[in-house]
Amino acid sequence: MNTVLDTVVIGGGAMGSAAAWALSRRGREVTLVEQFGPAHKIGASHGATRNLNPGYHQPDYVAMLAEGLALWEELEQESGAQLLARTGVVTHGPGGDLPKVFEALTAAGIRAEFVVPAEAGERWRGIRFDQQVLHMPDGGQLNPEAALPAFQRLAAARGADIRHHTKVAGFEVFDDGVRLTLESAAGTEVVTAAQAVVTAGGWTEKLLSGALNRTGTEFRIPKLRVTQEQPAHFRVADPGAVWPGFNHYPGRDYQGWYSPVYGMQTPGEGIKAGWHGVGPVVDPDHRDFLPEPKQLAALQDYARQWLPGVDPDSFEAISCTYTTTPDEDFILDRIGPVVIGAGFSGHGFKFTPVIGRILADLATGTRPAPSIFRASR
């Protein structure tokens, strides 16, 4: 039997769940299919904390920040779940274009202030500061483990069909829609839809390259690099320390290589810290989930030097994926009947409800995404 649907969202991580929420709010019929179960840890949307870091100066991102702060509050009110802890975020070190960030945020009505290193060290003694420090009080930590069920629960309440353990085994694209072959424990089902929203994370290229395209249109998108990122939760050694979210640019020759460091406190788990976007390239279907020894050792050494409030020898390693574009800007675009949301490059989660809104705009033809996110850039 061939079931006829309006919109199918492929991938039930953060962005797919937000897209289903946004579409359902507009009264659209939406079916969300996810190949794994709820709260799985195989992709990029698990764990209890993500930094809502306001540290941007590019106009499109700053506008999305302002919208996102309002939408997260709206989602909290609608769902009754606490999703954001406003601990503030500090960014320090010689990089990050902090004066530009300060000016852009202040102009947008998002609070920001420079703090001298000595004062910062007194306020947040678990972190060592030696250069410029930008404090952004409107930032904090988001909870993916609470946010994804909230998006899906609210979408389902408006009629969305949420299907876990459902894999797309066939993907055909026509001028006027798509045909999907879905596999689940119930068997194989063929569905036809007016459009598909692809939010498949690390599986995006596999899915699009496997699509049988009958329109002659190619899915030309920026190359996606899937990496296994390996932060860790360090045990708190100073129970009296106050922890904001933090980002640090330690310099261009740290341990022979360069990467910003991000971190935050995860209640009950410790202080999360990690390198940004420099993990080993992986196939998302074939990961070992084991930390790369050299990077883990360098992270411990970083903690010894820059995080006096933790025990660098007592930690729990974490594993997640980044799906990164060459310019680290997202892909938000529509090609024929296929809407693509991909390449969130390790900094997309804070924008989740905004990205859901943008994907819904693309699916309904309401308005295009900002040009920096075009697939053809």
How would you describe what is shown here?
The protein has 377 residues and is α/β, with parallel strands linked by helices. It has two domains: 171 residues, FAD/NAD(P)-binding domain (3-Layer(bba) Sandwich); 157 residues, D-Amino Acid Oxidase, Chain A, domain 2 (2-Layer Sandwich). It is 26% helix and 30% strand. The strands form four sheets. Strands 1, 2, 9, 10, 11, 12, 13, 21 and 22 form a nine-stranded mixed β-sheet that branches. α1 packs parallel to α5 and α1 packs across α8. The longest helix has 21 residues. It is globular and about 65 Å long. The two termini are 40 Å apart. The relative contact order is 0.20. The model has no long low-confidence stretch (mean pLDDT 95).
Features:
377 residues; alpha/beta; FAD/NAD(P)-binding domain; D-Amino Acid Oxidase, Chain A, domain 2; 2 domains; 8-stranded mixed beta sheet; 8 helices; 26% helix
Distinct helical segment count:
8
Distance between the termini: 40 Å
Mean pLDDT: 95
| Annotation, overall tally of beta strands | 22
Would you identify the CATH architecture of the largest domain? 3-Layer(bba) Sandwich
* CATH H-level superfamily of the largest domain: FAD/NAD(P)-binding domain
Order of helices and strands: EHEEHEEHEHEEHEEEEHEEEEEEHEEEEH
Percentage beta strand: 25-35%
Rounded radius of gyration (Å): 21 Å
**Spans with pLDDT under 50 lasting ≥5 residues?**
none
Helical/strand content category: alpha/beta
Roughly how much helix do the residues carry, as a percent range? 25-40%
What fold name stands as the CATH topology of the largest domain?
A: FAD/NAD(P)-binding domain
Principal-axes geometry comes out as globular
**Count of distinct structural domains:** 2
Main beta-sheet annotation: 9 strands, mixed
> CATH top level of the largest domain?
Alpha Beta
